Hints:
The protein is an alpha/beta fold. The chain has 3 domains: 23-145, Nucleotidyltransferase, domain 5 (2-Layer Sandwich); 156-223; 225-348, no CATH class. Helix 12 (299-308) crosses helix 13 (310-319). The protein contains 15 helices and 9 strands. Helix content is 61%, strand content 13%. It has helices spanning 2-22, 65-78, 97-105, 115-124, 132-145, 156-187, 193-222, 225-235, 242-252, 261-267, 292-297, 299-308, 310-319, 326-347, 355-378, and strands at 26-35, 39-48, 53-62, 85-90, 109-113, 272-273, 276-277, 280-281, 285-286.
Amino acid sequence: MIEIESSASKDDKENYSLKTEEMEKRLKQSLGIDVSKSNLSLSLGFLNERLVKEFESRPDVSNDIKGYKVLLKWLGASVDPNVELLVVMEATGVYHQGIAHYLYEHGHSVCVMQSGRVKRYAQSLDQRSKTDALDSRMLSMLGLERNIRPWHPPSKELQELKGLSRERGSLLNDRTVETNRQGAIASSVHSNARALKRHKARLKLLNAQIAAVEEEMRSLIADNEELKRKLEYLTSIPGVSFVSAATVIGETLGFESIVNAKQLASYAGYDVVLRESGNFKGKTRISKKGNSHIRGVLHMPSMTCVRCNPTLKQFYNRLKPNKAKPLVALVAVQRKLLILMYTLWKNERFYDAEFEIKKQQKHEALAARDNNLINQSVS
């Protein structure tokens, strides 16, 4: 009789323990979405008050409005309504945009992560296998462990500006190809006059389309007073044209997700990579693991700036003698130019050629004042 009561008491304790675990308060909940062109892989994670992470998954849903509705219904039945849900996904070109906008419009907090940051987090987990299910679980874990800045949809004008800048870049590449082909045909011993005529017609068409895209970019910005006003801060920099400034703004969507200069440099692939190990001394170079469109559009402005921009010309002349190749100093100018554009955009100020001089004079005045105070205290 005593053993039976003791056994019953033990069962009651186990049931009570299970109920207690089920009723534990959830501190955070995060939905990780691994996005592909056709499907969405899902993993829902919870962090309870014992700081234990639990995950719940379901079969993939299609990456279209039908799949979005299935996902929303599943979330309604699975998440704790008293705890804010954080949705984490990786930026994947255009394929993540549909689900990101859909969940944002339905009141969820969405975070769109840069691929480089997600990759570094995955490497910290020592996760050797790679599947869609594991990636969605990793994204969910990222949302539970880190404080991530929420994503907000960019304005329609900025998205359209980005599309136009990408189209212009593609047309420029096509024009370069056609120009090279035309030159090769013209220089050939057995040149074909009719083929050369067709190449010239295609080249004429590309030039007309490039001009049309640039005019559409100007019209788009002219119709938006705020965008027009803020873009004038960037074009006030000597050497920066309208097209260059508009392309940078379009590619960064108005620097919406950029919080500091270091993050911007990494986003554009200008972050410096140093490789050293023991006696091995590798070359220092930029990573180029970023937005190549920004680096491409800043090449010509940087060459102009080293001739006519008083700040960047002095910066280039100071770096050039210490670099093995002038191009290395020119890349440093591009990085500094990009950060300068970001600073003027955020502070809403025009370019000041004497800013560095004024800054140095201010520091010297503060140092002189401190020295006077020290001398007065000693005397």
